[in-house]
Amino acid sequence: MNDAMALDFGVGEELGLVEKTLRESVRSESPLLTEIAMHVIAAGGKRIRPAICILAYKSVGGSEANVGMAIDASVAVELIHSATLIHDDITDEGEMRRGQVTAYRKYGVHNALVAGDFMFVQGFKYGQFLSPESIRIAAEAYERLAEGEMLQDHWKNNVAVPKEQYIEIMRGKTASVFSASAQLGAFHGGGSDDEIEMLGSFGTNVGIAFQIVDDILDIVSDENTLGKSVGNDLREGNMTLPLIYAMNNGVDRKLLAEVISKKVKPKGLVESAIDMIRDSGCIAESHKQAEDFVEMAKRDISGLKASPFKEQLLMLADSVVTRKK
Amino acid sequence: MNDAMALDFGVGEELGLVEKTLRESVRSESPLLTEIAMHVIAAGGKRIRPAICILAYKSVGGSEANVGMAIDASVAVELIHSATLIHDDITDEGEMRRGQVTAYRKYGVHNALVAGDFMFVQGFKYGQFLSPESIRIAAEAYERLAEGEMLQDHWKNNVAVPKEQYIEIMRGKTASVFSASAQLGAFHGGGSDDEIEMLGSFGTNVGIAFQIVDDILDIVSDENTLGKSVGNDLREGNMTLPLIYAMNNGVDRKLLAEVISKKVKPKGLVESAIDMIRDSGCIAESHKQAEDFVEMAKRDISGLKASPFKEQLLMLADSVVTRKK
């Protein structure tokens, strides 16, 4: 974990409780089911969604006494997020995740798929005592996520995807859950409708920035740092922001178009494309776009009353673009 | 649909509302997501879980005014059930379901998997206004379902599975959701703890009988009647009750053991095994076992006060063993 993400944003104690509760939540009569769920949970991940949820809760004045609501909401969101990761790896044929072999590679497609379903259900079970409103927020976020996944698939291997469509995909695929985390925290913290909306929008913009940085890291990072293989998006045929910029910015578009549109991509060709994008100005341009979304996120919560938690939210937003994994 | 299952058990109007609500529940910004969900929903299925839920609601005296609760619970259960069917077909590589090509074969693994996740989430979204208790009942049923799936996988290609383990698998994989349907109906109908328990047990026993009949039909039926290919369990290496009886009842155990333990099963070998089981006494023996579970189910609700709905529940239990698909 790099320095920026090792920060606990002043809510380390609550994040510790999230970890503990996550582990309890996947207990089952089936030892293998628990093992697969723990394989994903224990590998860590950044827990940035729980951090946003808890900070949102506190920043609207949520009480210490009821912070369990924000913790339960975080656990629910993180469980459902982990479920989608397991399922994603199955369809993307991902080999590594969070520095270890993916669940479906280790346990087989059947078991990984069922474990994902189990975690989905546990997520909603954990959310059971929250409120109908919070279940609606979580469910709608995952509806947007599924829609984003379908839109991404629709544009697969297609170099003509407009930047606006890419942003729309990110808004669904990643930002919806960031937004839900912030809204759930604000809602349970007793925030006003305005505060819930502000924080929801903050989550959306942080989430889009987070995903753009993910797309950048898939090109500029290496497997050891990232904990998963690089060049995945290119191999999968997923159009990302660096690729979209590259297609419009004078690098060898013909080579790129060839790589992207080919269903089976020779390794050498993918590596040439990565090198080309890496050495172009597209990475800096993409970074600039991520920073713009972070600035929007920070403006989203400018109306929030001053507090140490608001400061931490601003730091968290900044950390999203400086992260190295 | 055969005559027994074409019966609407006196709740045709409510089942019509379940159909209508199911269709509304899968609307999405993504037309393809809705299309895949509708592919599964519109194919029908027996809606036996909704029928149990609504009859349980009415049999404990649930009011006409609030029958919407039982309908929403039914929709939630049916959505989650449909989600597991889509996912099952992916891992079992099923080609046909409910008389049409399976979702993953038509739309690809990625889209089918995401659509399944979408339906899971819509199920819980639909259940949002019910109550924490009903979300707990539904979530725990699907926890048992996942555990049953894992146990079945554990015994895959293993001829030594004891009958008790088979029943345990069925209790999780199928009966848990039947039981949850009955409990949800009874709970929302204002049933006493005793009534909820009785009806839950009724659901469990009907569910086990239903699954045994499924296993029988996989051997004795044909693709046209069943709406899916036959011999699936044998090909998949899943031990079923007819197989367990066959292994213990003097048919050619060596041939059977060979078929079951082989990972790749030659077509001719599977067909010989099916013929052998079909012609043995194992089918009648399995049928007898299903009837025993139906009798247990009927005894479970003997303490329920007399009503036309109780009569329909008894008829529904009987219909489970006489069905032809």
- The fraction of residues in strands of chain A falls at under 5%
- Mind telling me the CATH class of chain A? Mainly Alpha
Total number of beta strands of chain A: 2
Determine the structural class of chain A based on helices, strands and strand pairing. mainly alpha
Show the largest interface: A-B, 43 and 43 residues
Helix content of chain A: over 70%
As an assembly, this protein is homodimer
CATH topology of chain A: Farnesyl Diphosphate Synthase
Describe this structure in words.
- The structure is a homodimer of 325-residue chains.
- Chain A contains 17 helices and two strands.
- Residues 1-5 of chain A have low confidence and may be disordered.
- The first copy, chain A, has a single domain, classed as Farnesyl Diphosphate Synthase, CATH 1.10.600.
- Chain A has 325 residues and is mainly α.
- In chain A, helix 4 packs antiparallel against helix 5, helix 5 packs antiparallel against helix 9 and helix 13 (241-248) crosses helix 16.
- A two-stranded antiparallel ribbon of chain A has the order 1-2.
- The A-B interface holds A 28-30, 32-33, 80, 83-84, 87, 90-91, 109-111, 113-118, 120-122, 124-125, 127-129, 132, 135-136, 139-140, 142-144, 146-147, 149-151, 153-154 and B 28-30, 32-33, 80, 83-84, 87, 90-91, 109-111, 113-118, 120-122, 124-125, 127-129, 132, 135-136, 139-140, 142-144, 146-147, 149-151, 153-154.
